[in-house]
Amino acid sequence: MTLRELERYIGQLLEISSFHDYCPNGVQVEGRVEVTKIVSGVSASLAMLQAASAAGADAVLVHHGYFWKNENPCITGIKRARIAHLVEHGMSLLAYHLPLDAHATLGNNAQLAQLLGFQLEARFGEQNIAAMGRMIQPMSLQRLSAVIEERLQRHPLVVGDDAVIIRRIAWCSGAAQDYLEAAVDLGVDAFLTGEVSERTVHLARESGVAFIAAGHHATERYGVQALGAHLAQQLGLKHQFVDIENPV
User: Fold this and answer.
1) Per-residue pLDDT tens over the stretch 132-154
2) CA-CA distance, 242 to 233, in Å (whole number)?
3) In the chain, how many domains are there?
């Protein structure tokens, strides 16, 4: 299919026009007209682009692309090297940020819920990106931490009493630590996100709501994989996910 047909399909699927984002969603760098193979990954780093070109990608599909609000618009240095690699290999870059966090089935938060055993009940936060609900199987914070480590393949940073039973939980992938206060107001037992700030530890301790930082990269690997798999199934495209290790 053509690049523009693919862009229209994803745009409608993720309802990108419904979001106010910090970056453009859709084609950020235009490559060849026809798309047969997509390589997906979390972020459009040079290592990711090199892996995609080695795999014979026509288009690279990511959660974290380029041209963020308030970033230097000049195409120099690292940004130039990345874009030059795309252009040299005729690859397009498609990036989807908040729409990919929020999608009801393919999104990062929906995929986390499926992977970790959370049952969605409501959404909250900016543009309803964050989610809250119940544990399908209530368990201690210590046990939940072990489940997260096993399934996300990352040791989480956990603030809270290991013995407390987690029944109600809120979650939001990536850098959503500032949603902890809203999660506290919702009356949950725990809040899970990717990153942690120094002040967040004190708020968690004083509120009694457990805080789990499971890794920005680790919590955002699943939406882009699900989207790529959907495109392969529905549109007949070839899809390959590439995971570039990131400890954050």
Assistant:
1) 999 999 999 999 999 999 999 99
2) 18
3) 2
